């Protein structure tokens, strides 16, 4: 028999009705022989009652029911006794007196609790995802995702967009990340690629005359995972013909307003703010600014060069910049100790330090003000628009480091001062991105963003002689400091597209091999067109105040790109490999990608390090002996479990971990060391080989002060047979840990 109602549907208007409910048994209570069970489905909870005076057979069955048993029960709706109502649930005024149990499907004891109040480890949640998804919290989050998809589809359909599916098996093309390759059985030695985005196909749809296309597209990228990244994700993919950037901006504003109103009852103000890429980086030190609060930055190199402050002058001499953050009203709010903490934070993030000046009614106040003539001080006040009680924070470094540090300090201050409210949403468009960026490692130009972007007409002349000056019709859409979409006006001129490819060092033969079919299509009449790919998972999570997209994806991968539930990826059988004409010709041992990640991270920052090959070592003492280092110079990189997931705690090789002190520092309620399997899951490394680079595994990292007291540190680099020696200060700069005292 089918259910007549869901477990979230009945009210006091249904009293005396005969109903049939189906669901999972949640809590069970025995009150003097009368058994009360909370029956749960995705719609809600209804209390059902088994009274032996009403029906003995059903009561006997109720005595055997346990958590997560599935039942279908029939009974009469009645009003709950006065004082026993539950205002927290929609069905709290009624209960169902069961007269017959129509079906029972027993469940074994679940390994995790189906309860929002109890959080299991990430590994357990993903392994038993079908149980995790039963939790009301997860069902609410995925229902929200569904409603968001419906709202987006409704809006776009009302505005003449057609949803068209594009291929999943495609030609491999470079789009920034690694492709997932699929071998062809019918064409030995050839491979399809899984799409990183539908980019080329949606452009071809514009050429085909479908002037308004959209798709909730599955995109697959073989890249390192973070809280806001997954190997497969969904994006709202959209393209418009006979359109420019203004049309995209207008459409986006039109889409966001009704979606937020419908799903969150939020009235979003339009038009959205706009900043050029240059202006955003200047004012906020990032091209993904959180615009919910002030505290803006500005470059003051031209002013600072007239000072007598040697630290600034040395940086300027080396082509660095002097940039300042106006921390509004922080002159009084921040103590000297808090300012010192910001200075240390800046150093941890790669800066040489942080200078500061307080603004008073009489002018500037600091131990370095004496190096700044009155004229220079006046110019600083005018440029920063500082007022009494403001605090000026100066970063003197390369443009990259200065901007990164001030951007992080700006967010840190806003969070600590309560300037950011989670239920507020602020949007902006970032425009006029550079077309190319210089690749220092390969000594060549790369596309800064989408390779199919149209360069602005006034910069076409710079394509061959000075690509670094070329500005494009690339635009980003940012909400609360997170990029929601990246898009552009597309390059629809085949000769010009060929020219932009050649800037990046591609030969004409290579261009034709990879993109010849698109360039040929252009020659049959290509309209001007523009579009974007909006991160649907990210939008869904941020709208719900969630900062991990795995919480809004039904079956996500873990940080090692594995699915613990089904065991993927798994090995193919010999028969399958033969059918695909594939022979595995490699030694079956774990390839240490971890070492490669560390090496790449250090090389990127131009940090000096030494690689040591040695016999396997499993203790700090053994490691020190083979490395020729002191015991205290080694690091113990430990993985610990908290109520929110894994973290990394690093102590000197001469110290042990004091969990109580670590708890005090981190404010986690519960911390325990991970076992071997959990360490492998979190890092891909075996116990004893984990490097102090938890940031590479998307872990929050804590360093005991004993680590940074050394000039030189050494550590296993993902293998028991390979170590790295480097400066401790460089390690801190790359890893950006929280530093405290938790060693003993």
- Rg calculated over all Cα atoms: 30 Å
In which range does the helix fraction lie? Answer: 25-40%
Class by alpha and beta content: alpha+beta
Strand content: 25-35%
| CATH structural architecture of the largest domain | 2-Layer Sandwich
In spatial order, strands of the major sheet run 6-9-10-22-21-20-17-11
Q: How many H/I helical runs?
A: 24
Query: Between the first and last Cα atoms, what is the distance in angstroms?
Result: 65 Å
Q: How many structural domains does the protein architecture include?
A: 4
Give the overall silhouette: globular
How would you characterize this protein structure?
The protein is of the alpha+beta class. It has 4 domains: 12-105, OB fold (Dihydrolipoamide Acetyltransferase, E2P) (Beta Barrel); 134-284 and 421-553, Bira Bifunctional Protein, Domain 2 (BirA Bifunctional Protein, domain 2, 2-Layer Sandwich); 293-420, 2-Layer Sandwich (Gyrase A, domain 2); 593-740, YbaK protein, CATH 3.90.960.10. It is 30% helix and 25% strand. It has an 8-stranded mixed beta sheet with strand order 6-9-10-22-21-20-17-11, sandwiched between helices. A 5-stranded mixed barrel has the order 1-2-3-5-4. A hairpin with a 2-residue loop joins strand 24 and strand 25 (645-652). The radius of gyration is 30 Å and the shape is globular. Mean pLDDT is 93; it is low at 587-591.
Topology:
Elements: E1 18-31, E2 34-41, E3 44-50, H1 56-62, E4 70-79, E5 94-105, H2 122-127, H3 129-132, H4 136-158, E6 162-163, E7 181-183, E8 191-193, H5 199-207, E9 212-220, E10 232-241, H6 245-264, E11 273-276, H7 277-284, E12 297-299, H8 301-304, H9 310-317, E13 321-327, H10 330-333, H11 336-348, E14 355-360, E15 363-365, H12 374-384, E16 391-397, H13 399-416, E17 427-431, E18 436-439, E19 444-447, H14 462-465, E20 474-479, E21 482-489, H15 494-503, H16 508-522, E22 529-535, H17 536-543, H18 574-579, H19 593-604, E23 609-613, H20 620-627, E24 635-642, E25 645-652, H21 659-666, E26 671-673, H22 676-683, E27 700-704, H23 705-708, E28 712-719, E29 722-727, H24 728-735, E30 738-740
Parallel strand pairs: 3-5, 6-9, 11-17, 25-27, 27-30
Antiparallel strand pairs: 1-2, 1-4, 2-3, 4-5, 7-8, 9-10, 10-22, 12-13, 13-16, 14-15, 14-16, 17-20, 18-19, 20-21, 21-22, 23-29, 24-25, 24-26, 28-29
